[in-house]
Amino acid sequence: MLESLLAGLDLALRVDTFVWVSGGLLLGMLMGALPGFTTSMGMSVLVPISFLVGDPLIGIPFLIGVYKGGIYGGSVPAILISMPGTGASIVTVFDGHELTKQGKSRKALEMSLFASAIADFCSDVFTLVMIIPVAAIVLGFGPPEIASVMFLSLVVIAVTATGPVIKGLIMLGLGVWVGFVGADPFSAMARYTFGTSELYDGFHLIPMLIGLFALPEIFAAVRDGDLPGSRVAAFVGERLRWADLKRSLKTIFRSTAIGASIGVIPGLGQPIAAMMGYIAAKNSSDHPETYGKGELDGVAAAEAANNGVNGPTMVPLLTLGIPGDAVTALLLGAFMMQGLRPGPTLMSSSGDIVFGILIAMVLANALFVAIGYVTIPFFARVVTIKKSLLIPVTIMLAFAGTYLARANPFDIVTLIGFGLIGIAAKVARFDVAPMVMGFILGRELEYTFGQTLALAGNNWLQFALTERLGMTGVVVATPIIGIFLGRRMNRFRQRARERDQAEAA
Amino acid sequence: MRSLRTVWRFVLAAFAVGLFAAPALSQERFPDKPITLITPFAAGGSSDLTARVVTTYLHQYLGQPMLIRLVPGQAGQKGTLEATQAAPDGYTLVYTDNFRDQLHQFTFRNNYYDTNRDLVSVARVNYGQIGVIVTTDGPYQTWADLEADARARPGEVRLSHSGLWAALFMPAQHMMIELGLRFRMVPYRGGGPAKAALMAGDVEFSMAFPSTIAADLEANTLRLLATAGPQRLIEDVPSFVEIGLPATTGYIHRIVMAPRGIPDDRLTILRAAFAQLQEDEQYLAAMHRLGENTEYLDGADYEQVRLEQQRDYRELVDAIAGL
Questions:
Q1: How far is A270 from chain B (nearest CA, A)?
Q2: What tens digit of pLDDT does each residue of B239-255 get?
Q3: Helix, strand, coil percentages in chain A from 3-state DSSP, rounded to 5
Q4: For the whole prediction, is pTM greater than 0.95?
């Protein structure tokens, strides 16, 4: 193994590899930053390039560059115009856009870049070193365990919602219910579709996100008008300081670990990782009430978690030949095109090339920071343009992005519908964040719970008590954790109330 | 500075002239603009990948690029609908498979299109034959072991599949009907997670296209118990016909369809391009590296296959509904 590692190092240190990785990163960032153009779509369009380039140490690092760049790139419109560029950056909106409104867009973008790059680097090193030992553990985490963790997450979100608990619960429940719309995953029976074929697949995530997050912001901007000095942010704000980064390092490492753990499990993906990382950061913070109101740490938590997923998805792909999602399935095809067959024999047959690719992936992170850093001032300036220009462009991006995602005219209806819900929620001072979390986690919970029931058959009690103790443990612990965190959050709520009263007085 | 601008203007002008003049010059020639290939699948699956291999090499024989347009959704109905509603001028085609083409008319009711009425075959790109897989450290050495266990414990032997009415689900339904067995079907999101469930020991068996598990077979971690078709694919592994299943069970046909009503001469040109593609060494090598065969069939011949499939699927779905 050490031999192939050294041989891989030899293979990876090539100028043309780095040129291609840089190109991939830049393309990925641009595609990710384009709302509606998801990372998997971008890679799917670019995968023939890797077919035509006959060298595995060029074609595959190029695609990996697109992957990493795309997951980070999605945070740019999330922070600037409250429009997640990809599903992975939903959580980045919660705090990122608040920071932009406070005139700190540059700081938020730089935090996103550094959190993403640190998470990518650490999780890539983890992948490189642990790829063989970890493969065996991956499979211990099946639908029952995922279901129990989803259940725990929903409970934690419910009890620790910022603001009144009842409002958080309503939005969370609404999100879970919206997730039920469409064919149920087990019998394909249509639910709440009102006989239409458009709702058969349920609501699509991208138009829903753009509707809930971006349209209310546009609405507010239009309502406030273009008064003198009312640019969305007249200045891009100061740079990220070392002290800011140092303060968030703990969060970044925690989120990286969470992202990496989710990455090695096939099929969970970045949006769930970002939510987990955010929930964990909020609950271990000593000022959780600031999350969702422009907390820099919240951006770090989300972005480190979603980028932490990227490298470790290679573990089940390369060692077991299991692609968990569309992106890894495309990478599987790219590997096979180069004559490399992911699976148990890959490491012994072409270990040097695989390590070469993984080392290129680790080293690409330096380029990641460089390219990202150069492009930030350009991106950050976007919000300094006049409102009368920015608003029409944002509206166009919202609608074009929605259509781009699936070319489905009904998605425009979804966009407007959720936009109205978002506006109503803003007026009534409801937070839409729990709704989105309920939507994503609720669907995952329903699916994995159904799978668990199918696996258990009629002997579910025996199944829970003998075969799946991990799941049972999490389910039993959930109310205890819920009560503990709920009480903790109550103290912070009270403190925030007292502070508000003191300020009022 | 000025000279640079002049160059730009020239390029733009040339581009504009090319854009508008080209159709006028080549009125008779089809195709004279890029062809859209709708794929009713999500990005990243084996269908998406093979479609991209086809379009990477096919343009040489058409004289025009073929552009993929992903229209996923509603189990493939969204993209199929779009293809059936497209103008039958040969500029919009659809890359689909036998489940979406012939099976789903019986499993998902829809009043919008009828694939038999609205689509005509251009070519079958290739096919895949499914196999029954187990782990080598599991309880089953042969298909007979699995069948005996499933008979002894009806509804207890678990199978991971990749989704309702899809490639891993259908052969299992055939087995249950034809052999009088009852499996416990556990759905997963795609073939990858279904394979992971088998390797984790969460389910007793699964199905896979042998190309996707070549490395596992080589490493002796997975074992094939039976493979689709009348003949054996591997010497000591029985075929589906030997274990009592119909010869057509467990096939996925990747096909390119055009809206019916396409002028005959255009259909001929398209079919000829696919025939020529079969001579392209680079295309063949690319497909083989993906573990895919290149068992091409001309569209005219595939029309017969469609009729047989329609009959088989109707019988099967009726039998399932009768259970």
A1: 16
A2: 999 999 999 999 999 99
A3: 80, 0, 20
A4: no
Cβ-based contacts of B165 with chain A (< 8 Å):
188
Q: Is B36 on the interface with A (CB under 8 A)?
A: no
The minimum CA-CA distance between B246 and chain A, rounded to whole Å, is: 26
The count of other CB atoms within 10 Å of the CB of residue A463 is 18
DSSP A141-186: --HHHHHHHHHHHHHHHHHT-SS-HHHHHHHHHHHHHHHH-EE-TT
Q: What is the mean pLDDT of residues B40-69?
A: 88
Chain A contact present for B154, CB below 8 A = no
Residue B8's pLDDT is what?
53
From chain A residues 256-275, the ones with a CB under 8 A of any chain B CB are 266-267
The angle, 0 to 180 degrees and rounded to 10, between the axes of the packed helices A15-33 and A56-73 is 30
The conformation of residue A241, written as its DSSP 8-state character, comes to P
Nearest to B56 among A43, A51, A138 (CB): A51
- A226 pLDDT tier (thresholds 50, 70, 90): low
What does residue B181 show for φ and ψ, rounded to 5 degrees?
Answer: -105, 165
pLDDT tens figures, B100-147: 999 999 987 777 899 999 999 999 999 999 999 999 999 999 999 999
Contact between A51 and B187 using a beta-carbon 8 Å cutoff: no
Q: Do A11 and A51 touch, CB atoms closer than 8 A?
A: no
Binary contact (B43, A188; C-beta < 8 A): no
Sign of the alpha-carbon dihedral angle for B150, B155, B160, B161: positive
For helices B281-289 and A326-337, the axis angle rounded to 10 degrees is: 120
A193 Cβ under 8 Å from any chain B Cβ: no
Query: How close, in Å, is residue A155 to chain B by CA atoms?
Result: 25
Higher-scoring residue by pLDDT: A94, A130: A94
Residues from chain A that touch B79, judged by Cβ atoms under 8 A, are none
Taking a C-beta distance cutoff of 8 angstroms, is the pair A128, A363 a contact? no
Q: Could you check whether the bond before residue A133 is cis, i.e. omega within 30 degrees of 0?
A: no
Q: How far is CA A22 from CA A25, A62, A377, in A?
A: 5, 8, 19
Sign of CA dihedral A52, A58, A63, A66: negative
ipTM value: 0.87
